Amino acid sequence: MNDTANAVAPVIYTNSLSPVRSVFLAAIMNFLGVLTWGIGVAMGIMHLLPLDIIVEKSLSFWVVLILSLLFSAIIWNLSVWYLGIPSSSSHALIGSILGVSIAMQYLDPSVIPSWAKAEEVFKSLLISPLIWFGLAFLCMGLLHKIVTSSDFFKRPGWLFNREPKNWIRYLLIGVSGFVSYAHGSNDGQKWVGLAMLILISLVPASFAINPSIDMTEIRTNITHVDSVLNAVDETRFETSEKIVFWETRDHVARLKTLLEQEVLSNTEKVEVRKHILKIQKDYKVMSEQKYAFIPKVQADSFNSAPADLLSLKASIDNISSATDYAPWWILAMISIALGAGTMVGWKRIVTTIWEKIGKEKLNYAQATTGALITAVTIWTATKLWLPVSTTHILSSGIAGTMTFEHGKWWLQWGTIRHILMAWVLTLPVTITLSAGIFLLLWKLFV
Asked: pTM of this prediction?
């Protein structure tokens, strides 16, 4: 209802496609985006939570955690949607996760919230809108030099000639589809991650481990991890790093023992997941001390196997495929939800984006520029496994095109202030909401 409406705005606003066809296009392209780009961003969102610590918590604890995340994100997203203010659902989800982590730290000091991610989001809030504003401004200047047709720089006609010329129409449909595809590859994955979190928490026996994974390959990789760790010169670690190293060795040994069995019980599947998550987390700490992975010099031989950091990472990534996955029907469910939400709520956000940021309605060139910059930016971020905000990119881009066409005084500063306020408030409000809801539900039910 909020975020995905940005993707269909160019074709609906310019009368290139009807709302029904636009939403159908968005749903298909979102689905393809989620389906073809893996789940790197989804797993990144999941790992914002201390999964290795909470994996063994009770079912009631998991239910409280999930409800806290969902309620806080939904309350904020519905509120800004109702007011017609474009806001980032990505930041709402990240804020909700941070809030829950803070509440868990209050109950258990061993839980450490992902402050690095919060810092990353705050930096994004400060820097990225200026970048997208500038890119859109430059792109409009480039289009004025390259495109000779004056029709491209006209505003959509509402009384006569409702549809643009065919080449403009097809261009807008193409860039709008690209936005939806990119949106699915990035934003859609975030909700895939949350859906998987729900499945793993409520039905761990069925979803703790990827049912289609080749366990023989996992056994081979864990054996390789064990051999590499055996060759590590642990004397080069600091005391705290040695403790992490010893814990990792212990988890590897336990995982090897579990994987020797042909069939795992439900409890053992959860154990396998716990050990893999611990190994993933500990590797990040160990890999910072690269000197420990230089081959040890043996007194009797110079041909000892090197402790290869790169091969260790490759093996751990392969092992992670047992836990980092999502069934195809989850991808389909998220895509359908994105399409349905767009169908219900597109009008409020489309009206704000395309009519209220500037004092003039947007022309075809502005619509194309805003959509193209949004799509390319999201697509690039997905390749880097970085979560970004569709709303922030598009809103900043539209403001940049309006400034180029008419100057900064042609922006509607009242709307701009509301959007900026929503951007700034998203993180602190959702952090507070989710932490408060979590502590309340925990007190009542856990």
From this structure: 0.76
